[in-house]
Amino acid sequence: MLGLNYKLRDLERSGKEIRVGLIGCGQMGRGMISQIENMKGMRVVATADLYTKFIQQAYLKAGVKEQSIILTDRIEEAEKAIEQGKVVGTVDSDLVTSLPSVDVIVDATGIPNLGAEIAWKAILNKKHIVMLNVEADVTVGPLLKQMADASGVVYTGSAGDEPGAVMELYDFADAIGFEIVALGKGKNNPLNFEANPSSAEAEAKAKGASPKMLASFQDGTKTMVEMNAVSNATGFLPDVAGMHGPSGTVQDLPSLFQLKEEGGILNGKRIVDYVNGVAPGVFAIISSEKEEVNHEMQYLKMGDGPNYILYRPYHLTSLETPLSVARAYFHKEATIAPWKGLQAETVAVAKKDLEPGDRLDGIGGYTVFGKLFSYSEASSINALPIGLVDPNVVVTRPVKKGEIITFDDIEQEKESMIWKLRSLQMQSTKEKSVKGTPGKSNLILV
């Protein structure tokens, strides 16, 4: 099978290209536009953002001439521009998901509700969808994947994002028959459950990042969500609520991730976790019971056994997203998807004492952070998934700082798209459980 680089070159030689529609022109989206402009056989032909000046700047920095950037909210004008080799900027995300000439949609908004709506509409328009929105994926990804399968398109997470990078190691180790003990990622800042946009503002400004986004990394929510996606893809579970999160070097990890009776920290195997001290890398802890395999691994200087580490010291975030775009287009395959369904849940925990009438302001805000549980444990206490948190959600009874917020503690003033999809997902799950037909979609797509 030809590599993606050869397939892209061949596509360009034939006078064609993969036409990408991007929604969200923040840091991730801008980087992706520039990277794809360097590639053969692919182009971001349409981009949506609330601020068209961001779109113009992104295309200009990527080397697109100003006269080739057409700003419009009219589908006929957008289609004509694309056919003429120009690119389109718009404030209307629906325009991008509905453009007939667009092959693959990329969601780079980072907003769970918006990402869920974008994926839903992309699939209804029979377009492949690549999610850089892990928060939406862990909340309603199983439903979106069912929809995509039924529509004959690909629903996928992104290469370069940490879950996708972990999945590469998992696929490699699983394919050649290693036992996989643990999957994980590094965390590059101290865990601070109280982090918020105000406390993160100075560092965010120095880094040119969003304070809210940075706070979501500092308070651990992003780490929980990312390993949640790995859990839903592989069936691996957090060994303890919130994961262990030890500190260590790459060399420490094979001995750390052993069972407690063997001197490690684990209660069981096939777990997800994170480690302070190995960022920005991702890892898989593997082992084998075969004497010859262990001999070979030791000869290859992979360690003394019985555990060994596969470690990737980088992930290039949205710069690698085009690989997922190409894989979906050429091979109709996902980089990572919730193949196992809801295995884990990142639940909302109060950052401060909350009183009736308080609104939950979302991921990276002032009111909640996320903590990873197994899905069975989270559902048994009726815990509120972090992806359902938004300003429409109001607290109805006191919740102490550090307590898990449950559905019994809140009400929603207006039902958002992600809440509707979550309800459909839970209904579908219950129906399949009753009928005993796993893998069959009970959804009717209109």
From TrEMBL:
GO terms for molecular function: NADP binding; oxidoreductase activity. Pfam families: DRL_cat, NAD_binding_3, SAF. Residues 345-411 form the SAF domain. This is NAD(P)-dependent oxidoreductase. It comes from Metabacillus arenae.
